[in-house]
Amino acid sequence: MKVTVVGAGAVGASCAEYIAMKDFASEVVLIDIKEGFAEGKAMDLMQTASLMNFDTQITGVTNDYSKTANSDVAVITSGIPRKPGMTREELIGINAGIVKSVATSLIEQSPNVIIIVVSNPMDTMAYLAHKSIGIAKNRIIGMGGALDSARFKFRLAEALGCPQSDVDGMVIAGHSDTGMLPLTRLAVRNSVPVTAFLSEERLSEVAEATKVGGATLTKLLGTSAWYAPGAAVSSMVQAIACDTKKMFPCSALLDGEYGLTDISIGVPCIIGKNGIEKIVELELTDAEKAKFKESAAGVRAVNELL
Ligand SMILES: NC(=O)c1ccc[n+]([C@@H]2O[C@H](COP(=O)([O-])OP(=O)(O)OC[C@H]3O[C@@H](n4cnc5c(N)ncnc54)[C@H](O)[C@@H]3O)[C@@H](O)[C@H]2O)c1
Ligand SMILES: O=C(O)C[C@H](O)C(=O)O
């Protein structure tokens, strides 16, 4: 299994680190435009191999896509992150050009690659990747819901005063401060609906904290987060590499599912060796359907800026 990670910045390096530590890939190629940067990150990470007990070979290259040839999976993290006070959508001007050219270079070298798009605004960047390279829709996956769901579980466990391993929950719809839809109705603690333990008011606080999870970290860090994003991507890469058929909410190009077409947005997906192997259609309530529709309208409005 050969994995390319484009962008050796905060998220790209964290993603390469978690992939290596899980030790399921033979090779990770880190590629960046900044001269020597990916080489440095790769060397530093390789010097942890004997300490962290992994055999994954990590190589860094500056803008040489021939080194990414025949990758099975590629992750696009190249592009600028937001600063405190900004929205993800404001990044479109710079990131659209980067994502389009990176996706094109990747597919030239690895015609069968499965691409995971991370760069923001992610749903629109995933849509742009589909439009730019036109490969089968199961092979371009946007990462947002896996991260948002991890943040939802963190907030649920905090509210419940229990370990995160006790809780399960999922966030669907757009990866934006206002568009996320944390499914509080379906969240559980050891099979018991969390509504049995938390008031409606507390659950709505949990949902709100989840939705602004990225903005909260951006305010604290001065740039956006990387540990949980890197871990979320590594879990998705592992599901592809090991063909686990694990379900993650991912930004998928819809063709009638959830009543939508020609949009990439967060929905539950089964992930395996073919990328998105199935989109799971949930029975949403009327209120959830209305929020999902509103979120989709927001994503479409950003897509129109392309
Ligand atoms: N989808 C998500 O859940 C999620 C989570 C976190 C971050 N992000 C997004 O991921 C992106 C990266 O964030 P970061 O914190 O790693 O930023 P960063 O600035 O630390 O790293 C970005 C890297 O991309 C490189 N780069 C720029 N143009 C390139 C190109 N054409 N080819 C190769 N490399 C190029 C830069 O040199 C830099 O090293 C941002 O757009 C951020 O908003 C998304
Ligand atoms: O918040 C951001 O801008 C980065 C990312 O989308 C996140 O949710 O951490």
From TrEMBL:
InterPro entries recorded: L-lactate/malate_DH (IPR001557), Lactate/malate_DH_C (IPR022383), Lactate/malate_DH_N (IPR001236), Lactate_DH/Glyco_Ohase_4_C (IPR015955), Malate_DH_type3 (IPR011275), NAD(P)-bd_dom_sf (IPR036291)
Domain Lactate/malate dehydrogenase N-terminal: 1-142
Binding of substrate, residues: R82, R88, N120, R151
Domain called Lactate/malate dehydrogenase C-terminal: residue spans: 147-299
Pfam families xrefs: Ldh_1_C, Ldh_1_N
PROSITE patterns the UniProt entry points to: PROKAR_LIPOPROTEIN (PS51257)
Binding site for NAD(+): G7, A8, G9, A10, V11, G12, D32, N95, V118, S119, N120
Protein name: Malate dehydrogenase (NAD)
